[in-house]
From TrEMBL:
Pfam families: CO_deh_flav_C (PF03450), FAD_binding_5 (PF00941). Residues 1-221 form the FAD-binding PCMH-type domain. This is Xanthine dehydrogenase family protein subunit M. SMART domains: CO_deh_flav_C (SM01092). It comes from Hymenobacter aranciens. Keywords: FAD, Flavoprotein.
Length: 326
């Protein structure tokens, strides 16, 4: 067993310093992904900085946003009255993720920072540029049925596994972080990275930066929303494909739209071009089919995941129809 130090600071600054000073230190909160990674030998931090004593569990409306503390539990956020009323899409996405037991442990911050479930990433006998840069990608020529159809590179074709993040990118959320150089805000769409030539980096966080909260701005998307998740087991599985849809409809005409796909890229995949096509159009199946065709522009599949080229637009159309009818 790997030995590691374990500390439980009560101040954010102490936690940040402990991780910023030590490249082998990691923050831990719910531990629902990190502990798995440690057990399997994917990562071996020499110090765990437990942040559960930091005061980061709040869910409160501030100004024109709902602020979710980074340590708010997924189950608590999903069942919070303000979340369900102001951002029902987020509640739907959270409840589609993991299992009730995991949602009772997983935090908002940890959910967005969970690592890919690419099986080659978890198999130490296989090459993986994300786990060990420069070794190759086992999935490129392997069984890549779970993998990306957008934004992939020759070095990595993994997908991001979070359902919550698909809703947050659609809802224009902003991530609040504190680090050794102070605090900053990151638009949710810029938190996660595409793999490019550095697939070992999942996010644009700097060493020692701690996510403290996520702000979800007020919006008109309180009624016509849907999160469509397609998975292999209804009880508990990561998305083959998911679609987050939020519409503002008046007299049958779409005034505004927010769309994103999950299970298709190294980051939650916002569909801004498709959103623009929806504006001013009637909320009909014919419109939704045109929009799905726009959404799929640029998609490229591999040997075993060609089905996603059909599944993704179908999931999006189904989500649009369900949202419009809500
Ligand atoms: Fe590793 Fe990415 Fe290739 Fe999976 S797809 S084996 S995570 S480099």
């Amino acid at each position: 067993m790997n030995q590691f130090q374990y500390v439980r600071p009560t101040k954010a600054q102490a936690a940040i310093e402990a991780v910023a000073k030590d490249p082998n230190a990691r923050f831990i909160a719910g531990g629902t992904n990190l502990v798995d990674l440690m057990k399997r030998g994917i990562t071996a931090p020499q110090k765990l900085v437990d942040i559960n004593r930091l005061p980061l569990k709040q869910i409160e409306h501030q100004g024109s946003s709902l602020r979710l503390g980074a340590l708010a539990l997924n189950s608590v956020v999903a069942n919070d009255t303000q979340v369900r009323e102001r951002h029902p899409l987020l509640a739907l996405a959270l409840n589609a993720g993991a299992s009730p037991q995991l949602r009772n442990m997983a935090t908002v911050g940890g959910n967005m920072l969970q690592r890919t479930r690419c099986t080659y990433f978890y198999d130490l006998s296989m090459p993986c540029n994300k786990r060990q840069p420069g070794t190759g990608c086992g999935a490129l020529e392997g069984i890549n049925r779970m993998h990306a159809i957008f934004g992939h590179s020759e070095q990595c074709i993994a997908v991001h596994p979070s359902d919550m993040s698909v809703a947050l990118v659609a809802l224009d959320a902003t991530v609040q972080v504190s680090g050794p150089r102070g605090s900053r805000s990151i638009p949710f769409a810029d938190l996660h990275r595409l793999p490019g030539t550095t697939p070992e980096r999942d996010t644009n966080l700097e060493p020692g930066e701690l996510i403290t909260a996520v702000d979800v701005p007020d919006s008109p998307f309180t009624k016509h929303v849907h999160y469509q998740k397609v998975r292999e087991r209804a009880s508990y599985a990561f998305a083959l494909v998911s679609a987050a849809v939020a519409l503002d409809i008046e007299n049958g005409i779409i005034k505004a739209a927010r769309l994103a796909l999950g299970g298709v890229a190294h980051k939650p995949w916002r569909l801004t071009a498709a959103e623009q096509v929806l504006v001013g159009q009637p909320a009909t199946e014919e419109t939704f089919r045109r929009v799905a065709a726009v959404a799929m522009q640029g998609a490229k599949a591999f040997k075993h995941n060609e089905y996603k080229l059909r599944l993704a637009p179908n999931a999006l159309i189904q989500a649009l129809k369900t949202a419009a009818a809500a």
